[in-house]
What we know:
mainly beta; Neuraminidase; 6-stranded antiparallel beta sheet; 4-stranded antiparallel beta sheet; 3 helices; 37% strand; globular
Amino acid sequence: MPRSSLLSSLAMALYVVGSTVTYTNAATPWQLPVGLTNVVASSPTTGAGYPIPAGSRVPVAGSCQAGAFNANHSESWIAVKPGTEDLVGSSKFFFDKYSTFYMFYLGAHQIPHGTPAGNNQIQGYDCISTGTQAMPPSWTDTTDPNLDFDTRGRVYQVMLPFNAFWDASRLHPDGEIDISYSDDMGLTWVKGNGGRPLEQSNNASARQAGHVEDKQWVAVNHIVGHAFQDHVYAAWAVFNGSSNGQGVKVKMAVSRDRGRTFDNAVTITPPSQVGAAATFVIPQIDAAGDVYVSVVSFPPNGSASTIYVARSSDDGRTFSTFVPVAPVSAIPTAGLPNTRFRDGITESFSASPTYAGHLYLTYEDWDPVRGQMDVKFTQSTDRGLTWSAPVVVNDNVDPAGVPTDQFQPSIAAGPGGAVAIAFYDRRATCPSDASVLAADVGRTNFCIDVTLQAYKDAGLGAVSVGANRRLTRYTWDPEQPGQHVGGLPQYPCAGARDPCPSGRGFIGDYFGLVVSAKNVYALFASTHYASDVSADEGGLVYYQQQVLASVSRSSLGKGY
């Protein structure tokens, strides 16, 4: 074996073993980190959206109006401006009192110096900011938050505007893929690519089989002095329905002028490598400026899915063969036991800004025997050619016969080899407080917290730093809001129905996590904090709010 190959194999062996040990002495299990803060980052704001007529479950074209965004705030992402503690978040802002009909737009959270300062609807997709009811440029919804900064402080987001006509008879453009960017920390947004979509949908409704885009993501090269500095990589999945047998493919478009124009999108997932259906695309940039993409392949026969990763060293023009990372078992019902909310995306992926070719991937894995979900972690130190044996991240020890779920993990890599994984966690019993519905008090494997696991990569791969740490000061009830406003339930229903069918609630498919030079930040949903909206039943509504958790890196372990 050549010496270089021998050293590579030795390094792989060392970090596979090392990934199961502790970097510093383990802390008391699941304690709150010293100095942890939890702050509500969402606050009431105004914008424009679509009311739902009485007796209907769909909006009416041309009925867009000014209104409030003071309801649910589900699903989020967060990005840090390089070299600072300035953050921008994004999440789904549900419109007025129409949460149960799944009416929402993306909004931005301004978080300068790590402190929430305000939020607003992202402009350019509604009748107020576009000045017209025409569809497009106006849309009934925008979705799927994702963010990244360039080196000059511009933050980008790939947008998915769509029209929520939930029946096959209404012909309106179903959706498109756009790019928007902001130069003022997310306060005002401009459509990139000259205002043109990166990909336009067919003229079909949301229920018709055919060309439908979803699960978009962005990555930006923010390596100062790199040949591809500030190049923007937008990726998304195109669902072609079951009738034509084309399945799902992943596409990518690249901008080399800070979002002003993009090359034509190209398909990057050959069916011969990843099968006919691949989605959950996440692009990332490593310390060498190479572009990596993770996807999950879903076999049409319903067998176990596989996570794949591929690499581009030529600015996204071509990609290597997709390498299988790990098989993964998805829950067949798309919903965890005991609760109605829909389960989220399978994996989260990050690349080291410190060590070229060091890649980190976490995913949720369903155990059909125990009926329980775990979070797992695998990594590569050779540019994704080989991957470590997956290890379980959550360290809870459940009582016999009472399994709990840990799910929807997010992973982030920061300066100096810091890596973090955060995930939703149901190990705690539902508490007795005003924010938990009376029927849910004392329930097990039901209410939700957020847990953090720190890792440190010193050059041979990431090893764990202490035990799991709890990031939420308060456990929250996913069945909230259980109240009504104006006679309408406020529970966010992914089925866009009243009443919401079993297994179709929505807490988000993922949430945000980022590591700066000084801190680890997470942005996630919680129903613990009362809103300022009065319920029909009396009292205030416990909407899903976006909560920013912050913990200093130094408090997580020596050398972290």
